[in-house]
Amino acid sequence: MIKPDFSRKSLIGLIAGIIIIYLILLIPGPGIPVPELGRKEPFLWNQDSFWTELQNRFEEGRRNDLAGLDSEIEKGFEYIRDLLSRLASENVGPDSPILNDLEERMFYVAADLAACPDRLPVYIRLFGRMRYLIKEQSGHWDMNSSIVRNRIYRLIYGGRAAIEEIMLQADREIVPDLINGDDEESSTPSSEILGVKIHSGDILVSRGGAPTSALIARGNDYPGNFSHVALVYINDQTGQVSIVEAHIELGVTISSIDKYLKDTKLRVMVLRLRSDHPALADNPMLPHEAARQAFERANSEHIPYDFDMNFNDNTGLFCSEVASSPYHNLGVDLWMGISNISSIGVRSWLSAFGVKYFETQEPSDLEYDPQLTVVAEWRDPETLYKDHLDNAVIDVMLEGAEKGDQLEYDWYKLPIARILKVYSVILNVFGAVGPIPEGMPAAAALRNDRFSTKHESIKGELLCLAGEFEKNHGYKPPYWELVKLTRLAASGK
């Protein structure tokens, strides 16, 4: 009598079951809706000829006598000082001719300084004064008006970009790692960190080193340089400094200052509520109370990361909400100018990562809030150049998104990713962190992998092209040239 071969049948059944499960797990999820956002439009410089003029001016300055160029720079400084004196003594509107003149002069002087950068510290101080005065003036403007937003962006972001172009052309020894802003008075507990007096309630705005950090910074109607927001809490009894922040992988966490700084930071800026803010007249300790509220909530409960980016729902928090939510609870609404993401391409890609709200609070836009003073900023040439390279790659990738490029993923990896997602959910229940962040769908995690791989591939090609440019021209490519080179890198030509 022949006995049935149960082991063989079991093996065949097991393989068939695995194949069936794999095929079921291959079934894609529902399509990702991309909501409309009214008739707003992203900001565009549309000044390619002006950038070319500045580059030609810079190259001419490199060829000319430096003593004569230094004299020209001093004339530019004097002109800017005169404009700033007028700005300090007059109330102007966002369309004032003074501001047009100031913007143009700041760029022209920057082109000269890039060729002769020894007087960079003077330019940095003039920019700081301009930023302070513009924010003071904008306290009387409608911060959600496109005219106002364009004006503030052109002057503050434009001035920031000009400084950084000079930094990248200058010798390392004359480029400061720390740029002090305005030491705004505060009654809250304080501590010195990296040479800066930090107060409880201060806001840290930074830039991470991942490709997604560059996407957050640039995927905005007003592309910027920051991707992350954190809130400083200083215990008034012990003096211990804690950083409250939201991470995609962990949700809201409390970190020491050492741990915060250990994470990759391409730049960090310190913002503080103005001492003349009306809310501080009644309660000078309001920033400290906001920070303590954020600290105590993070210390008492698990707060998941808010992938929706809905700042009106504080059940979960994305990084900006960590600061805006407790301040809002105490009567101060940060982000006087709400961020908008109008580009259909950017919205499509962010939707693929789980974002549902495109009128939100973007980290870069917080610098323009007239309620806040810039206290200090850290950056150095090495990380600054990486920041510019990452930005250029993202800007070009988003040009493709606007033309219809989709954020795809490796479809055959979906079953494995879904199994890992279930495993991650189980770990989350017990307070542990899995391979796929809480709240992130499996397909979104795969899209992130493909996106990051493509970004690094283009960046590798860009580094080669940028190196050739520097070898042929004798200087690092300015940002607009980096974008041109990135288009070549992305096209494979």
Please outline what is shown here.
This protein is 53% helix and 11% strand. It has helices at residues 6-25, 48-63, 66-89, 97-115, 120-138, 146-169, 211-218, 257-262, 278-282, 286-300, 319-329, 344-352, 381-402, 414-429, 442-473, 479-491, and strands at 178-180, 190-193, 196-199, 203-207, 228-234, 241-247, 251-256, 267-273, 339-340, 359-360, 372-378.
Structure description:
- The protein has 493 residues and is α+β, with helices and mostly antiparallel strands.
- The chain is built from 16 helices and 11 strands.
- A hairpin with a 2-residue loop joins strand 2 and strand 3.
- Helix 1 packs across helix 14.
Placed side by side, the strands forming the largest sheet appear as 1-11-8-4-5-6-7
- Which value, in Å, is the CA radius of gyration? 25 Å
List the uncertain runs: none
Query: Judging by the overall fold, what is the CATH architecture of the largest domain?
Result: Alpha-Beta Complex
- Secondary-structure element pattern, one letter each: HHHHHHEEEEHEEEHEHHHEHEEHHHH
In CATH, the homologous superfamily of the largest domain goes by the name: endopeptidase domain like (from Nostoc punctiforme)
**Count, helices:** 16
Tell me how many strands there are: 11
What's the shape?
globular
Mean pLDDT, to the nearest integer, reads: 91
Class of the largest domain, according to the CATH hierarchy?
Alpha Beta
Percentage beta strand: 5-15%
**Tally of discrete structural domains:** 3
- Specify the structural class: alpha+beta
